[in-house]
Each structure stands twice: as C-alpha cells, then as structure tokens.
Design a protein that fits this description.
Layout: E1 10-11, E2 22-23, E3 29-30, H1 37-42, H2 56-62, E4 66-78, H3 92-101, E5 106-119, E6 125-129, H4 130-133, E7 136-142, E8 148-150, E9 152-157, E10 162-166, E11 188-193, E12 201-212, E13 222-225
Antiparallel strand pairs: 1-13, 2-3, 4-5, 4-7, 5-6, 6-10, 7-8, 9-10, 11-12, 12-13
Length: 237
C-alpha cells in the first residue's frame, strides 16, 4: 500500500518501544522513531568533548539484538490494458477505475522486501512493523552474528503497525524497552536498523513531538522524530 511520504518520519507503538521506517514487500515506506529506553540512560551517559551525548554505550548494549528481516510473498496488481496503467489494488484510484470500467482482473506478482526488528525475549520473540511482514509467505530473521532463522508471525496489528514474530532460539541478546510516558520532546534519539540490508546502521536525531496524529489517520498517536531512516529500517528500535 502506498503510504503518504510524511509518515516516513513518524511511528506508533503502544508498548514501550517505537519502530523505525522502511518498506514492506519491496514497496513503500512508513514510520520512524526511537527506543524510549535511550532517554532513560541519557542522564548518566557521559558527554563527548563537543557537548553532545555519547551514543556508544546505547549502541553497544542494544545493537546485538537488532535483526535483519527479509520477506517473500506475492502481491496482486491490476492487469495491464492499453488504456489503463498498472495499479496497486490499495491505490484509491483503483476503486475509481473499477467503478467506471467494471471488474478488473488482478495478477499476482512475486515481491521481496527488507526490514528490521529487535529481539525482546531471550527465547526469540521479535518485534517489527506490521507492514514489513503483512502478506509475507516466508519471513527470514538474520541476527548480527549472521545466524538465520525462519520466523513465524504470531500476530500483527495494522492500527499500531506492530507485528510479533517468533524464532526458535535461546540465550539471545535482547533490547531494553523504555517507558514512552517519560519521553520528552528535544531528547536525543538513536535508531538502529538494516537500511538497504546494511546491518546495524546507526543514526541519531531528536524527539520532535509526542502524541501526533494525522487528520483521518488510522494509526494510533505516534512519536515524531527527525532521526534519519531509510528503506529497510522499518521495525528497528
């Protein structure tokens, strides 16, 4: 589904962490944010010489639990005709074409996509964005130590754009979840993910605002941030 470009800088997660931005099944982008856990430790984090916070301890502690997620599946597209463009069935104009042109055939097309995620339990529970795995037929989770696992999608919630995966592991590294109610605008944010498949890519920014909601948006109130996110960052802390 095409997402509005503004959503590349926002995220929503009702539990204690928020998710980064990227794309689903090789298509489009959505959401960016940060793990609220970073702010909890910022007060005790030593400053580097120029006065900015030192992010190294946050990255060293949490990066091993950040995973790369690759998905494969199929996506239905409207069949091409000389007088009609190829369209995504989720495109609002698709329904308009169907109304005036009648029922249009749909062709399944193979799709691939990349995303990120993070481990929250030592036995392999993984959080990511729902749009990363929605419609996927196979989900592969790759850890920072290069081990790969086939993941099961335990459930997903499109309203909060959150999905829960399970891999069969033990004694795995985990991300520390924070409390978003303690987060304040202006605090520093670190995003860790796998944009374009590059493992443990780290970017930084600040919290721009809390409780954001776009007019007519179906997503729960989100944390807005200016931290840089790229395709494939979706689902990272």
């Amino acid at each position: 589904m095409k997402r509005h470009s503004l959503k590349i800088t926002v995220a929503a997660l009702a539990v204690a962490a928020a998710l980064g931005g990227g794309y689903s099944l090789g298509q489009n982008t959505l959401v960016g944010s940060a793990n609220a856990a970073s702010q909890a430790s910022s007060a005790s984090t030593p400053a580097i010489p120029n006065g900015l916070p030192d992010m190294r301890s946050i990255v060293a502690r949490n990066a091993p639990a950040v995973v790369n997620i690759s998905v494969t599946g199929t996506r239905k597209t409207m069949a091409s005709r000389p007088d009609l463009p190829q369209m995504d069935p989720d495109d609002p104009l698709y329904q308009l074409f169907r109304h005036f042109r009648g029922q249009l055939p749909e062709n399944p097309q193979p799709m691939q996509g990349l995303g990120s995620g993070f481990i929250i339990t030592a036995d392999g529970t993984v959080l990511t964005n729902a749009h990363v795995v929605d419609g996927a037929e196979e989900v592969i989770v790759k850890l920072s130590d290069k081990r790969e696992f086939k993941a099961r999608v335990l459930g997903l919630d499109k309203a909060s754009d959150v999905a829960v995966l399970k891999i069969d592991g033990h004694s795995l590294p985990t991300v520390s979840l924070g409390n978003p109610s303690l987060l304040k605008p202006g605090e520093w944010v670190v995003a860790i993910g796998s944009p374009f498949g590059f493992d443990n890519s780290v970017t930084a920014g600040i919290v721009s605002a809390k409780g954001r909601q776009l007019p007519g948006d179906a997503y729960v109130p989100f944390i807005q941030t200016d931290v840089a996110v790229n395709p494939g960052n979706s689902g990272g802390p």
